[in-house]
């Protein structure tokens, strides 16, 4: 099963070819420096008082408010993603800057943005922006990936018809990108719920009001030590998650299959939705769909911009930036900003805490692999019905925000940050292992059965090498919710150690400069883990073991 780089699938090469670049570091350092220079004169204002606010809303009112936040967040994702990706497709220089900027945005722990956004925006806007940040970079990246894989024949047709930049983007690139964007949106839903509920809870502490949604109510019950109320709100949140999944995400995922040129994947069943089936069998809904389709087609025919005579692949790439000089200049600017903000005294302690946080994340990933690789391979050897049932159960459990289980873990004495982070990340690793094991060609399994491979020899020669590329690549996705929950998980540890716990205390204390510095270090840690460990593992496994 060994091979050369030429045997690596193009999708793997395109997904994992990027390494840590000087442009990415320069963007991170420059944005941090500018933010520190802007807020260096802002005083540290405490935002948490000693007494908890009283509960001012009912449970169902909080559920309705959370649903409103979900709807506004998803609309924000759609609008911002269309604007950013459209601008990137229209202006090549902006696209050259956007690609490394998206890599930085992917590494930013979303909960760390709460304190910064709350200093500028109202509480409801802050909740919406923090929740939407988990999905925007995924959608924009999916649109850009779809543009890179656009068939040349479609480009020639668009050029021959003298389509403008807007027409080409709306009528050509968006339909091609629909399947990938919906799939990425489904992948982002676990992190979306974690950020949304955590943002509602933290905004309750910062604004001293409980009318912020289910997250505020459940955090209030945690601090008041009301276990029955925690269970009640958790069940209501589970109901909301199922409602959004069945009424929004599943129908959109099933509808997106019509835009897949090669049809649904053969190894996996086509996504189905009972609501989408009902919609297609109802005449008023079909009329509404037709009217909406005509309106979108009318919008797509607007001749905005000028006709394009060259293919977008011929635009300027990342040649403008001398990657060796920019990081040095941006690092000097960052040191200057830290000095003038009076934060040099915090750098040594934050660096020590960052090493501890990195160890928590790495131990979590190792624990997930040690548990799910043997468990997933054992499940893959069972009957197909049992495999599909286990996979559906794991996917359903992965949607539930694990932060709601943290108080129970504290009551049971499971106060390790690794255990708390494991609760939120292991479901994604389980899905990756089950999908990778299911995708093993049946011919290889028949050959192994004919050669009577059993036990350790079967795992060593077939199963482990076969799932290695998908497993190593899946870790790139599985690590994202770990960084999202690191603030809350480390705060539940009695020792209150780690950079995530430090950042949370600074958010609740209102120290903007210290928040920005800690958030930059967390982002840098995420980028280093991704670029120096996970991506090389994925590329090496793809080169050696992909058929």
UniProtKB/TrEMBL annotation:
Keyword 4Fe-4S on entry: no
Chain ranges passing through the membrane: 60-89, 110-137, 228-249, 285-304, 324-343, 355-377, 389-408, 414-437, 462-483, 503-525
KW Transmembrane (keyword) present: yes
Membrane topology designation: Multi-pass membrane protein
Residues in ABC transmembrane type-1 domain copies: 59-248, 354-533
Alphabetically ordered keywords of this record: Membrane, Transmembrane, Transmembrane helix, Transport
Signal peptide: none
Family that this chain belongs to: Belongs to the binding-protein-dependent transport system permease family.
Protein name: Transporter
Organism field: Gluconobacter cerevisiae
Taxonomic lineage: Bacteria, Pseudomonadati, Pseudomonadota, Alphaproteobacteria, Acetobacterales
């Amino acid at each position: 099963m060994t091979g050369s780089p030429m045997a690596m699938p193009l999708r793997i090469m395109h997904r994992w070819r990027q390494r840590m670049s000087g442009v990415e570091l320069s963007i991170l350092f420059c944005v941090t420096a500018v933010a520190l220079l802007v807020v260096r004169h802002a005083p540290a204002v405490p935002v948490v008082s000693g007494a908890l606010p009283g509960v001012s809303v009912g449970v169902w009112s909080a559920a309705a408010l959370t649903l409103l936040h979900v709807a506004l967040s998803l609309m924000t994702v759609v609008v911002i993603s269309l604007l950013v990706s459209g601008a990137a497709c229209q202006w090549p220089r902006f696209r050259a800057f956007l690609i490394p900027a998206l890599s930085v945005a992917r590494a930013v722990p979303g909960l760390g943005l709460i304190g910064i956004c709350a200093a500028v925006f109202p509480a409801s806007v802050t909740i919406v922006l923090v929740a939407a940040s988990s999905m925007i970079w995924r959608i924009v990246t999916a649109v850009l990936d779809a543009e890179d894989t656009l068939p040349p024949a479609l480009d020639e047709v668009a050029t021959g018809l003298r389509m403008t930049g807007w027409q080409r983007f709306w009528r050509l690139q968006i339909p091609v990108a629909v399947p990938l964007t919906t799939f990425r949106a489904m992948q982002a839903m676990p992190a979306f719920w974690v950020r949304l509920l955590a943002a509602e809870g933290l905004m309750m502490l910062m604004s001293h009001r409980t009318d912020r949604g289910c997250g505020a109510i459940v955090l209030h019950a945690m601090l008041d030590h009301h276990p029955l109320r925690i269970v009640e709100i958790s069940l209501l949140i589970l109901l909301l998650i199922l409602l959004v999944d069945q009424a929004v995400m599943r129908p959109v995922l099933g509808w997106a299959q019509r835009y897949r040129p090669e049809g649904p994947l053969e190894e996996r069943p086509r996504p189905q939705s009972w609501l989408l089936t009902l919609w297609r069998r109802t005449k008023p809904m079909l009329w509404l769909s037709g009217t909406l389709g005509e309106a979108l087609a009318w919008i797509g025919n607007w001749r905005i911009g000028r006709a394009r005579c060259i293919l977008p692949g011929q635009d300027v790439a990342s040649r403008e930036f001398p990657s060796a000089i920019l990081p040095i200049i941006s690092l000097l600017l960052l040191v200057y900003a830290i000095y003038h903000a009076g934060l040099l005294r915090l750098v040594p302690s934050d660096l020590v805490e960052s090493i501890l946080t990195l160890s928590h994340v790495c131990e979590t990933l190792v624990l997930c692999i040690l548990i799910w690789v043997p468990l997933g391979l054992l499940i893959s050897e069972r009957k197909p019905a049992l495999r599909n049932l286990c996979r559906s159960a794991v996917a359903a459990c992965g949607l539930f925000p694990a932060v709601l289980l943290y108080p129970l873990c504290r009551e049971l004495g499971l106060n390790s940050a690794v255990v708390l982070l494991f609760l939120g990340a292991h479901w994604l690793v389980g899905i990756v292992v089950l999908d990778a094991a299911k995708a093993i060609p049946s011919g290889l399994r028949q050959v192994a059965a004919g050669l009577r491979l059993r036990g350790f020899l079967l795992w060593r020669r077939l199963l482990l090498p076969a799932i290695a590329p998908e497993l190593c690549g899946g870790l790139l996705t599985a690590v994202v919710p770990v960084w999202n929950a690191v603030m809350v998980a480390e705060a539940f540890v009695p020792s209150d150690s780690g950079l995530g716990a430090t950042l949370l205390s600074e958010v609740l204390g209102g120290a903007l400069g210290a928040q920005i510095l800690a958030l930059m270090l967390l982002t840098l840690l995420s980028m280093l883990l991704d670029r120096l460990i996970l991506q090389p593992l994925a590329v090496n496994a793809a080169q050696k073991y992909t058929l």
